[in-house]
């Protein structure tokens, strides 16, 4: 599975081999917070993660549900 995480502010797209809810958290942590310690990400209860009708949003990042 490849998920594209779109930065809604800049238009940049990042690809992850993760489900969409994890891809947006990863993109947010890496490109907004500059945190590349993937083992520290809290995918389940991340405070910025929001499920919307057609996908997931975390900060300025969006990934469509598959």
Question: Would you mind describing this structure in some detail?
Answer:
The chain is of the alpha+beta class and 66 residues long. It has one domain. The chain contains one helix and five strands. It has one helix at residues 20-31, and strands at 3-7, 13-16, 49-52, 55-58, 61-64. A five-stranded antiparallel β-sheet has the order 2-1-5-4-3, covered by helices on one side. The longest helix has 12 residues, at 20-31. The radius of gyration is 10 Å and the shape is globular. The termini are close together.
Biggest sheet descriptor:
5 strands, antiparallel
Summing up helix and strand content along with how strands pair, one would put the structural category as alpha+beta
**Ranges with pLDDT <50 over ≥5 residues?**
none
* Gyration radius, in Å: 10 Å
Helix tally equals 1
In N-to-C order, the SSE pattern is: EEHEEE
Q: How far apart, in Å, are the first and last alpha carbons?
A: 9 Å
Give a count of the beta strands, DSSP E runs of length 2 or more: 5
Helix content: 10-25%
Strand content: 25-35%
Report strand order across the widest sheet: 2-1-5-4-3
Number of domains: 1
Mean pLDDT: 96
Envelope shape: globular
Question: What is the structure about, briefly put?
Answer:
The protein has 66 residues and is an alpha+beta fold.
């Amino acid at each position: 599975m490849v998920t594209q995480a779109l930065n809604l502010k800049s238009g940049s797209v990042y690809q992850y081999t993760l489900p969409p809810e994890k891809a947006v958290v990863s993109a947010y942590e890496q490109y907004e917070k500059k945190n590349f310690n993937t083992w520290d990400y809290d995918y389940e209860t991340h405070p910025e993660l929001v499920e919307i009708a057609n996908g997931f949003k975390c900060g300025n990042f969006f990934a469509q549900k598959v």
